Amino acid sequence: MLPANISIDNISNGDILGLMSKSKAFSNLNVSLTPQIFYILLSLATKSRHGYDIMKQVESDSQGNVKLGPGTLYGAIKRMLEEELIAAVETNEARRKYYKLTEKGRTIFSSELQRYNGAVALAKKRNLFTNPKLTKTTLTHV
Q1: Which residue, 50, 68, 140, 141, shows the most beta carbons closer than 10 Å to its own?
Q2: What is the chain's pLDDT, residue by residue, as a tens digit (142 residues)?
Q3: CATH code reported for the domain at 31-120
Q4: How far apart are CA 82 and CA 99, in angstroms?
Q5: pTM to 2 decimals?
């Protein structure tokens, strides 16, 4: 954490990025995953994959709703490697780097699945799948 008396002129980009990355850390099981991270972990839940395979699996699993470009994919992979959600796999293929879920990654992914399962169960209980009429709310200015 930065000292309270620090001037804006004395804050570096590294300080800002360090604080941002710590605030988004996956150390808390209650953290909600972004769709990109969720689908990457989902793609690695059954087997190790290389980057392009992850990209294609995410697109397939999300029915085309999540498309990862190389920058987004490898930025997410870098962050998940740093957070130890995934690990690189040793292979004989020099051209491709494979990744797998770690125990921490599997635990966080499982926690997110449980959260989704709870939301789906509640939606079913309220008949939102069979009768998706949502009440309209009016926004009022105070």
Answers
A1: 68
A2: 445 555 455 555 444 444 444 445 666 666 789 999 999 999 999 999 999 999 999 999 999 999 999 999 999 999 999 999 999 999 988 889 999 999 999 999 999 999 999 999 999 999 888 755 554 454 555 4
A3: 1.10.10.10
A4: 13
A5: 0.73
Provide the residue ranges of all domains of the chain, joining segments of one domain with +.
31-120
**How far, in Å, CA of 61 to CA of 128, rounded?**
23
Q: Left, alpha or beta for 28 (phi > 0: left; psi -120 to 50: alpha)?
A: beta
Q: Work out the burial of residue 55: count CB atoms within 10 Å of its CB; fewer than 13 is exposed, 13-18 middle, 19 or more buried.
A: buried
N- to C-terminal Cα separation, the chain: 37
Concatenating the DSSP letter of every residue in 27-65 gives TSTTPPPPHHHHHHHHHHSSS-EEHHHHHHHHHHHTTTS
Contact of 74 with 86, CB cutoff 8 Å: no
